[in-house]
Amino acid sequence: MGKRRAERELLRSLSKRRKRHLREFGEEHPFYDPVLLLLLHSCFPFQSENSDQSSSESDSETEVGQVSVYHKLLATLKTSPESESEEEEDESESEEDGESEAEMDSEGSEETGEAGGGEEYKNDTPGHEEGITATDTAEQTLGQEEADGADTSCDPSHGAIEEFTDVKHESEFSLETNFMEEESGDCNADKRDGNPFKQHMDKELEEKEVEKMSTLPKTSTQSKWPRLGQVTFSSTLEKCKTLKADKEVDVKQLYLHKPLETTWPKMNNQFLSSVNKPSDLFFTPLQRELFCIMNTYQDLFYPERNALTNGEEIRHAYCLHALNHVLKANAQVLSNNAKRRDQKPGADNVDYRDQGLTRPKVLMIVPFRECALRIVHVFINLLEVNEKKKIDVSHKKRFKGEFGFDPEEKPPNLKRPEDYEAVFAGNIDDHFRIGVAILQKSMRLYAPFYSSDIIIASPLGMRTVIGAEGEKKRDFDFLSSIEMLIIDQADIYLMQNWEHILHLMKHINLLPLDSHGVDFSRVRMLNLNNWSKYYRQTLLFSALQDPQINSVFNKHCFNYRGQVAVRNVPLSGSISHVAVQLPHVFRRLEAENITSVIDTRFQFFIDKVLPEYRDAIMSHTLIYIPSYFDYVRLRNYFKKEQLNFTHICEYTKKAGVCRARRFFLKGEKQFLLFTERFHFYKRYTIKGIRNLIFYELPTYSHFYSEICNIMKATDNAADATWTCTVLYSKYDAQKLAAVVGIDRAAQMLQSKKNVHLFVTGEN
C-alpha cells in the first residue's frame, strides 16, 4: 500500500503535460531526465558569450557549430505548445485520474486484495489479442545482444525482412552445408524396419487417393482405452484399424532418436509414481496412451487437458514427439549430404528427396510466453545427456530476459482460484514468436524462420506475421512445409481471438510464393505436388469440447493416416459443485437453425425473461454473457430503453469496474451486464448478487458453479431470496451436458418444457 500511495503522490506532483506523456509512452519525457541533460552538456560543450575571442577563425566556426547542434538537440526535447483541444483533453483526463484514485481509495483493502493494486492490469491480454501489441522492447533487446556479442539480424527492430533470413549463422546451422558426425552414431539409427517416421514420410500417395480424401466421407470406429476412455478413430483411405493401447512400453519399439532414449526417463521421472512397474519407467499411463497415438502420426484431439493436473505431462509428451521428429528429419538430410559428398564422379546420380520447400517442420501454438519458456527448457533437457555433454544454446540470456518472469512483479495480496494461478503463471504476454534451429549438438534460439526447424508462437504473433490480404509486409511461405502442427490449450484462444486460429489454418501448407533458395532436387514429391496438408500431423489439446474447436479438427485436418479423438461425456456436471441453496430454472428457446440462435435468444430474452426482472423487487440482477457481441447488443438495448443498469467487460477501465461494482453492491443500479472474458481474465468477486441470469451457458462448465457460489459473498445472505435462470437451446448440448450431466441433459433436450432444479449445496 505504501508503494502505491507513493506512486500516486508522485503522479499528482507532475504537470499535465508530463502526466500525458507518461500515460502515452510509459516513461517521462527525456527533457526532464537530469542524467541525459548532464550527458548532453559533456558531449556538446560550448563557450559562453564572455568567452575568449582570440581563438582562430576555424576554431570559432567549430564552436558555433557545436552550439547550434546542442541547442537543436535541446529544442527537440522541449515540449511544443499544445492546442486548446489538447489542453482540454489533459484536464478531462486528469480529472478522470483523480476520480479513479478516489474510487480506488474508497474500495479499501478488499479491492486491494482483488485488483492487486493495479499491477494486474499491466498485461491487458484482451487488448493484445485484438491486435494491440505489447510495448516494443527492441532497444533493450539490442542492448542486451550487444553486451552478449550476439547477432541481431533476426531482431524485429531491423525490419520484417530480416526476421526471415539468416546472415551470420547460415553456414553453421545450414542443413545443406553440414554432414552427419561419424562419432554420433546416428547415421543408421533410423534405418530400422518399422520406423514410424520413415513409414509416414516415405508413403507416396496416388492422385486417386488424394481425390478420395477430398470427396468421400470418413468412416469411424470407437474403442475404450484404460486411461483415455472413449476414443474415436476416423479415416477415409482405408477401413479404420482399431488401435490398441500398449500395456507395456518397449524402448526399441518407440524408435526414439539418440540421445532421447537416455534423457527422457531422467527428465520424465518427476511425473512417475512409485507404483509404476519396472517395465513402465518411461511414461505415465496418460503419456503412454497419448504417445502411442502420436507415434503413429495420426491426428489427435484430446479435450481433457487440465492445467492443474495433467498439463505438464502432456507438454512433455508432445515435446518428446516433436523433437524426435526434427532430429530424425535433420539426421536424414545430414546423412544424405555425406552420401552425396562421397559419391564417385561419373556414378549414376541418386535422388535424395528428404526436404520440404522450406525448412520449418514443426509449428507449436501456445497462448503465453511462459508456455514457450517451458517448452524450450524441455528441449534443452532432452538434448543434454549429462552435465559433461551440454549443448550449445545461443541467445539463452536474451531468451530468459524476454520470456522469463520476476516473481516480485506479482501483486502480493492477489487471491485467485487454483486453476487461474496455473493458467496465468509466469509471463502472460500473448504476442510473441520465436524460431528454434537444432543441429546435432547445438540449438539456436531466435533463429530466422527460414533457418528454423521449430517455430513457437502465439496466435496473435502468427497473425501479425501472416498479415491480411493487401498488406505489403506479410509472409507465410515458411508455413508451406509444416509437417507437425501442435495447438496446445486451444480453449484459451476462445477467450483471446479464435479468428487468429482460423486465419492460421487458411495459410498453412500452401505453395510458397518464392523459392527461398531451395534445392528442388532434394524436395519431396509430396511438397512439389502441394500435398503437404495430407501428411501434416495435427495435435490439438484443449480443456473442453467446443463446436469451434471441433470444427477446426474436422474441417482443417487432412492427414491420410486418419484422426483420433477422445470423446468422453461428463456424468455429473458442474452443478454438483454449487455450494449454496439455489433454485435453477433452465428455460429452453426454440431456434430453426444454428444461424438463427443468436437473434432468437435475444428476442426470447427481451420478450420473456427481462419483463420478469423489471420490477424493483428483482434488484441486484447479474446477467452473465459469454459473447462480447451479445454483450454490446444488450448494452445498447438497455441504453435505448433507459434501464437502470451498469456494465463490466474485458475492456472496462479499472475506474469503471470499481464504479460498477460499488453501484451494484449498494443497489443504485438494478442490472449488471457481465462478460465471460472479464471473469476469465480477472476472477473478481462480485458482491450483491441476488438474481442470476445466464444469457447463454458458460464456455467453461466450472464457471457456472463459480458464479453461483459468489452469491455467498452477499451481505445478509440468510435473508435473501436467490434465483438463477439459464437460457439454452438444442444447439447447446455439449455445454448443457457439462453443467447438468449427460443423463439430465438428454432428458432436457427431449422435453420442450422449462426445467426447475433445486440444489441444496450437498449435491
UniProtKB/TrEMBL annotation:
Record-stated family: Belongs to the UTP25 family.
Asked if the Swiss-Prot or TrEMBL record annotates the protein with the keyword Nucleus, the reply is yes
Which is one Pfam family of this protein? UTP25_NTPase-like
| The protein's name | U3 small nucleolar RNA-associated protein 25 homolog
Q: How does it assemble?
A: Interacts with CAPN3; the interaction is required for CAPN3 translocation to the nucleolus.
Composition bias (Basic and acidic residues) maps to 119-131
Which keywords annotate this record?
A: Developmental protein, Nucleus, Phosphoprotein
Concerning InterPro entries, the annotation shows: P-loop_NTPase, UTP25, UTP25_C, UTP25_NTPase-like
Q: Name one GO molecular function term.
A: U3 snoRNA binding
Q: Where in the cell is it found?
A: Nucleus, Nucleolus
Q: Where is this region: Disordered?
A: 47-131
Domain (UTP25 C-terminal): residue spans on this chain = 574-758
Bias kind Acidic residues: ranges: 83-113
- Kindly list the GO CC terms recorded for this protein: small-subunit processome
Where's the UTP25 NTP hydrolase-like domain?
A: 297-564
Gene Ontology annotations of biological process type: maturation of SSU-rRNA from tricistronic rRNA transcript (SSU-rRNA, 5.8S rRNA, LSU-rRNA)
> What domain of life does the UniProt record list for this protein's source?
Eukaryota
Q: What does this protein do?
A: Component of the ribosomal small subunit processome for the biogenesis of ribosomes, functions in pre-ribosomal RNA (pre-rRNA) processing. Essential for embryonic development in part through the regulation of p53 pathway. Controls the expansion growth of digestive organs and liver. Also involved in the sympathetic neuronal development. Mediates, with CAPN3, the proteasome-independent degradation of p53/TP53.
Which residue stretches does the UniProt record annotate as biased composition, category Low complexity? 47-57
Q: Which PANTHER family match?
A: ORF PROTEIN-RELATED, U3 SMALL NUCLEOLAR RNA-ASSOCIATED PROTEIN 25 HOMOLOG
